[in-house]
Design a protein that fits this description.
With 481 residues, the chain is an alpha/beta fold. It contains 16 helices and 16 strands. The protein has helices at residues 2-36, 40-51, 59-73, 103-110, 122-126, 161-169, 191-198, 200-211, 251-263, 315-334, 356-367, 395-399, 402-407, 423-428, 444-447, 460-478; strands at residues 79-91, 96-101, 134-136, 138-140, 151-158, 177-180, 216-220, 246-249, 268-273, 276-290, 295-305, 341-348, 371-377, 385-390, 412-415, 433-439. The strands form 2 sheets. Strands 1-10-12-11-13-16-14-15 form an 8-stranded mixed beta sheet, sandwiched between helices. It has an 8-stranded mixed beta sheet with strand order 3-2-9-5-6-7-8-4, with helices on both faces. The protein binds zinc ion (ZN). The site of zinc ion has 5 residues, from helix 10.
Length: 481
């Protein structure tokens, strides 16, 4: 009996070691392919430098889609196809100027008192020498109406919805340009949580301020850096409320204006924006697929959004996410892995200002009876991977590999997965379980939606590690029943 127990335990140890080593071998093969023969960095460079930004409805976005189809076809995946969909079209104009007139600032500059008492060196770059008026770095928010001619008014800074309401009730908003200057909460470790805490001032600020008769809004850029770069992003209007222009200013400019609101009663700002909304345009999602060997009608979709804002090159947001997904599909094919489920790399269109691509993808999945048992989204930049957010249905499967994930530095497993582009899948198919890819978040909002989101700010090694992390996660999901 004792002999039997010893034999059995030895057998299970060897079996467990065997299982473990075949799993670690798989991880190793994926990482070797990503780090030694990686393609994602080079491809992201092509996308950023030959196409550039890809705002939905723009000619550039359409050129990018042609590039993506050709690029994916060159890897000979089982299928590459597009899903046509109408997307909104909004255009920035060259006529985009914001000027500030501030006698107090001019007097201070003449005395050399500015910006010596400020703690951000970007102030110095913002206003280098005294002048009659000062041109401010600013960009229209995506979807903003233009100014008929120009708007010239005094500025009032607010830091919360409650402050806006109380000033509005006192009649102090009427005719003013409202500066929304709520800052990121620096105590939060995840910059995404800090972003979530103040992004609504960008999204609905124009609606809230217009209710009290404001003439325009300026919004502090959604960033934790103190600099001059304005970060654009989506904003909304309500049909029943007058539509007023909205623009973003760099964090340093927002702080300067905020202070001048108090120090200079004569400070005024002039806004001229020529942006406009045009009729919707036909665009498309791009999909590359490897057919499943056991469950060809069950899908694992993974990807990012192909569109970007018109500032920068959409390198981190979300060229990186698209390249993670493409590279994961490529790596699994390159190492000869035969998937059990059908694997789909998806480049969704129009995440930034409409989500039309994601909605169409989910609609087609339902119409064609494509059962998506899992979907993963990468839309947090190409930074060092840390882990994943995972839906409870997939948690036991993912946790089986926790040790291995830990050993590759990607074992931070958070409860709950999701993302803007995979979200609509759940509505049509409640059994779809979500996974979100989580890279380090500390530098993402330095560049998010700004002219600095360019290829040069993506690190090759970090991008490749992200692609490898996505590839092993897809492999883990593919092992589930
Ligand atoms: Zn994004």
């Amino acid at each position: 009996m004792k002999k039997q127990i010893v034999f059995l335990s030895l057998y299970f140890t060897i079996w467990a070691l065997g299982a473990q080593s075949s799993d670690s071998l798989m991880f190793k093969r994926v990482y070797n392919e990503a780090l030694l023969k990686g393609q994602c960095y080079q491809r992201l460079g092509e996308l950023c430098k030959t196409i550039g930004s890809r705002l939905s409805g723009s000619d550039n976005a359409e050129k990018g889609i042609i590039w993506a189809v050709n690029m994916l076809n060159s890897y000979r995946f089982d299928t590459v196809f597009t899903q046509p969909v109408m997307v909104p079209r909004w255009e920035r104009s060259k006529k985009e100027e914001i000027w500030m007139y501030s006698p107090v600032l001019t007097a201070k500059l003449k005395k050399g008192k500015w910006p010596a008492d400020y703690n951000c060196e970007a102030f110095e770059e913002a206003i280098p020498k005294p002048a009659k008026s000062y041109k401010l770095n600013a960009v229209a928010l995506g979807g903003s109406v233009g100014t008929q001619t120009t708007i010239y008014a005094s500025v009032l800074a607010v830091h919360s919805a409650r402050e806006l309401d109380s000033l509005g009730k006192l009649g102090m908003i009427k005719g003013k340009i409202i500066l929304f200057n709520r800052m990121f909460d620096e105590s939060l470790l995840s910059t995404f949580s800090a972003y979530g805490g103040c992004v609504m001032q960008r999204v609905t600020g124009a609606i809230q301020a217009a209710k009290y008769g404001a003439s325009a809004v300026l919004v502090r850029s959604m960033s934790n850096r103190c600099d001059l770069h304005p970060h654009t992003g989506s904003m909304r209007y309500e049909d029943s409320i007058v539509k007023i222009p909205a623009a973003a200013v760099g964090t340093a400019v927002a702080d300067m204006l905020d202070r001048l609101c108090i120090e200079d009663k004569d400070m005024k700002v002039l806004i001229q924006l020529g942006c406009k909304t045009l009729p919707d345009r036909l665009s498309s999602n791009v999909v590359a697929q490897t057919k499943g060997s056991i469950y060809p009608n069950k899908y694992i979709a993974f990807g990012g959004h192909f569109d970007s804002w018109d500032q920068g090159e959409g390198a981190h947001d979300d060229g990186a996410g698209c390249m993670h997904a493409f590279e994961a599909l490529r790596i699994l094919k390159a190492i000869g892995y035969v998937p059990r489920h059908s694997l789909r790399c998806v480049f969704w269109i129009n995440e930034e200002n409409g989500l039309k691509g994601a909605l169409e993808y989910a609609r087609l999945a339902k119409e064609n009876n494509e059962l998506h048992f899992a979907a993963l989204e990468s839309d947090r930049g190409g930074f060092t991977p840390r882990g994943f957010g995972v839906d409870s249905a997939l948690m036991p499967q993912v946790l089986k590999f926790k040790k291995l994930l830990d050993s590759y530095g990607i074992g931070m497993i958070e409860k709950g997965g999701g993302g803007a582009d995979i979200g609509p899948l759940k509505k049509n198919n409640p059994n779809t379980a979500f996974v979100s890819f989580i890279p380090d978040s500390q530098r993402y909002f330095d560049v998010h939606h700004a002219e600095t989101d360019v290829f040069e700010n993506v690190n090759k090694r970090e991008l490749e590690l992200g692609a490898a992390a996505v590839a092993v996660m897809i492999w883990i999901l593919d092992q589930a029943e």
